[in-house]
Amino acid sequence: MYTQKLTDYQKEILHLNRSGMTQKEISKKLGSSQQSVSSAVQSIKKKGYEIMRHYRMVRKIPNPSTAETPKKENVPQEPEKVPKVEVEQQPVKKVPLYEFRS
């Protein structure tokens, strides 16, 4: 399965990948760009080594069977009534758009 030898840089990336780090975390640890790590990962794959895919969860999605339903105490039953405010209407002045001079 392993057709070619890896460079020291590729070995380090492979080791960190197998320890559970993402490509972003590897690039920060080694002080190199993500593009460099991504390129090395592609080279490792071409040489026949298996790369693990690791993802970090951004947010937890609750399991519907164990999730608690929201309590109805926190949900307002009726919207609050806003008092009406009366505004005086003033007459509008008519202003000519053009003045004709002779």
Overview of the molecule:
The protein is mainly alpha-helical. It has a domain of 57 residues: Arc Repressor Mutant, subunit A. It contains three helices and no strands. Helix 1 crosses helix 3 and helix 2 crosses helix 3. It is elongated and about 90 Å long. It starts with 7 loop residues before the first helix and ends in a 56-residue tail after the last helix.
Strand content: under 5%
What are the secondary-structure elements, in order, as H or E? HHH
**Quaternary organisation:** single chain
Write the CATH fold name of the domain at 1-57.
Answer: Arc Repressor Mutant, subunit A
Count of helices?
Answer: 3
Class of secondary structure makeup: mainly alpha
Helix content: 25-40%
Count of DSSP strands: 0
Looking at the overall shape, the CATH architecture of the domain at 1-57 is: Orthogonal Bundle
Q: What layout of secondary structure does this protein have?
A:
Layout lengths: L7 H11 L4 H8 L3 H13 L56
Helix pairs in contact: 1-3, 2-3
Q: Features of this protein?
A:
single chain; 102 residues; mainly alpha; Arc Repressor Mutant, subunit A; 3 helices; elongated
